[in-house]
Amino acid sequence: MNPQRRTLLKTGALAAAMTGIGMPWLARAAQKVRVGYLHTPAVDGQIWTGLETGAFATQGLDLEMIKFTTGLELFQAMIGGSLDMLSTGAVVSNFPARGQGKVFLLNNVEYATAQLWVRGDAGIRGAADLKGKKISTTAGTTAHVFLDRVLKGAGLQEGKDVQIVNQRMTEAVTSFISGAVPAVALWVPFDVTIKQKVPDARKLVDASAFYPEAAIVGGWAARNDYYEQNPQVIQALIKGWVQANDHLLAHTDEAVAVLQQKHYPQVPLADMKDQFKASKYFTSAEWRAKYADGTVTKWLQQVTDFFVQTANIANPVPAATYFDPKPYLDIVKA
User: Fold this and answer.
1) Boundary of a domain, candidates 210, 239, 258
2) What angle, 0 to 180 degrees and rounded to 10, lies between the N-to-C axes of helices 252-263 and 231-250?
3) What family is it from (predicted)?
């Protein structure tokens, strides 16, 4: 265990002992939880904030953070048993619809994190100009879900009117930079590289153009067996997340600066602030209302419908079944 994590655990345990909160849970050794994540602010912003502030340590959790490149790889690892739970983007609406994973917590709406960039020399002024063009992206991800909305809005059909080049996002961006493709659908912070390497590149549209009718949400899912067997861990994780989320929103400038300095040093602070704004965050109380009135379930189902269609999921599990709002609603009171 690194010194920082050890310090956080000690601090959290002391605070809990002094206040009398969570003492039975903390009386035991910290519970290690293997968490897979994507290194993008929309996915790991609350996690790093919670680790920096001791929010998860206070709940007796020792999060072992394991980074992945795409949500597809995250779920494959979790299904294989090498992760207990994960935090990701739109893919959280994919595998659970196949019966692989239980969704229990939402991070944000990826309001403008998915973006479509075009080269300045490609002659693309609007979405209709994409006809006959190649577009690089990572299939089955937030960027792909967003791109599908863009194409449908322009009356274009994937595979017929445009050619989708499926690559890992790093390779997709490289293809765009090299000029191999005139357009790329990505998620932040990959836009930073585009702006640095292709000065005449232009953001054609981002996901905010389709909110709230086509909102893309990101959040947490746990392995089915882990979720059933560890309700106390799920509750502790939610409690830590609630504290981190509300700290992030109440002290945004400070929290984002810490995120940039310690976890995104390659991203200029100004760009980091823009990326934070690209997501739509809600206070824990605001999330509670959206859990309770079915808004979250609706948002999840909209993206599940995309995966059912594009991935030919047979007998899909509806969001109303694979998403469990009860632990959150029990913890965050109205």
Assistant:
1) 210
2) 110
3) Belongs to the bacterial solute-binding protein SsuA/TauA family.
Is residue 230 located within the same domain as residue 304?
A: yes
**Are 138 and 208 contacting, i.e. CB atoms less than 8 angstroms apart?**
no
Residues of the chain with pLDDT under 70: 1-28
198: tokens are 């292709």
Total Cβ atoms within 10 A of residue 14: 13
Say how far residue 38 (Cα) sits from the centre of its chain. Answer: 7
| Cα angle 108, 157, 109; round to 5 | 5
Mark which of 210, 233, 250 sits at the end of a domain: 210
In angstroms, the CA 244 to CA 192 distance is 26
Helices 169-178 and 190-197: crossing angle in degrees, nearest 10, is 20
The H or E element that residue 109 is part of is strand 102-109
d(CA 213, CA 128): 21
Of the candidates 64, 65, 63, 69, which has an alpha carbon nearest to the alpha carbon of residue 38? 69
Indicate if 104 and 246 belong to the same structural domain: yes
Residues 203 and 222 in one domain: no
pTM of the model: 0.81
Provide the residue count of the chain. 334
Same domain for 102 and 149, yes or no, is: no
Segment 2-40, tens digit of pLDDT: 444 444 444 444 444 434 444 444 456 899 999 999 999
Query: Is residue 225 domain-shared with residue 321, that is, in the same domain?
Result: yes
Hey, what amino acid is at 318? Answer: P
Report how many domains make up the chain. 2
pLDDT reported for residue 28: 63
- Residue 186 belongs to domain spanning: 114-210
Q: Based on the domain organization, do 76 and 219 belong to the same domain?
A: yes
Q: Which two tokens stand for residue 248?
A: 């992030």
Report how far residue 16's alpha carbon sits from residue 203's, in angstroms, rounded to the nearest whole number. 47
